[in-house]
Amino acid sequence: MKNRVIAGVILIITIICINACEDKVAVLPVPVPLAANCDTTHATYNSSSDSVSGIINTQCAVPSCHVYGSASANDLSSYSAIQASGYTTSKKGPTGTLMYTCLYNGTPYVMPNVQQPGWNNPCNQAKLKQWILNGFPQ
User: Fold this and answer.
1) Residue 105 phi, psi (nearest 5)
2) Which DSSP string corresponds to 38-101?
3) Which is higher by pLDDT, 28 or 40?
4) What is the rounded distance in angstroms from the CA atom of residue 97 to the CA atom of residue 136?
5) In this structure, is residue 96 part of a structural domain?
6) Is the pLDDT of residue 135 over 90?
7) Are 99 and 132 in contact (CB under 8 A)?
8) What pLDDT digit, counting tens, does each position of 64-113 carry?
9) How far is Cα of residue 133 from the mean position of the Cα atoms in its chain?
10) What is the rounded average pLDDT of the residues 31-42?
11) How many helices (H) and strands (E) are present in the chain, helices listed first?
12) Which domain, by its residues, includes 81?
């Protein structure tokens, strides 16, 4: 009886361990040299030339994705919505935020889920990354 209980416990633990493993394959951006006119030093949400709001609204806040009322994801359609989403907070700093880890590490989700035209623009990606690393300035 005791051996059956031990074997049952080992079987359950094995099943849990196997089911907990996921084979995630992330398509991470490949670093590309930036054009000389790509300025990422002052990336903010609302500034004119260094704005990331257009990038987010084109890549993330699209219908059926990160927009108000979407059942599938948090709203990222405005600065206040992004701040309220929880995607910008982490005790580990900017590289620990959900926004950074999804975009640049592919964990726990690979984002953008469906790349929109312009996502592969190295300057846009660099501005977005720098904006995150700068602490999401408005």
Assistant:
1) -115, -15
2) ---TT-BSS-STTBSHHHHHHHTS-TTSSSTT-SSS---SSHHHHHHHTTT--TT-GGGSHHHI
3) 40
4) 11
5) yes
6) yes
7) yes
8) 788 787 766 788 889 998 898 888 998 889 999 988 998 888 888 888 87
9) 13
10) 78
11) 5, 0
12) 2-133
